[in-house]
Predict the 3D structure of the following.
Amino acid sequence: PVAHAATVTYEILLDTDLNAATGCTVATAKGDVNGIDQSLVTTVITTPSGGSVSNVSRRVCSGGVLGSPVAVDAGGWAVGFGNGALGTAVIETYVPRALLAGATQAGIGVVSTSGAAGDAIVGAGGVLPVMSLAASAAVAPTQIPLLSPWALALLAALVATFGWRAVQRSN
């Protein structure tokens, strides 16, 4: 799966007020991105035999500077090597909804860093694509009909009868 051990961070940039004039400026491999209100940092540790998320933290912009990471989750779940599209890895992370300050949309970008190497997924000119953060409507569970105990007993008796007749015919 993985050729060598590495530590990789994935920082999801969030512009929760959709205003590039507020928030922080973050330098990425694709250029500066303005208006970042907070970021979610997911750290992945890989080894020759696999990998796992080692922690998830959050940084908040205050006074034009992204603050120090604050723990969200200690991690511990596996990375799905080869489980993504065309055999890519799948890395799961999350941000608790309460930390999004009621935002229903946000500009979202991703910065990945491993040692001195890095890459970014941001829109042209540092403009972040806007995504909906709205919760999907709750769907009521669908009841699955089951057989009553008497109907189940009748079904078992019928299966046993037909099974017995099939065995008798083959003899």
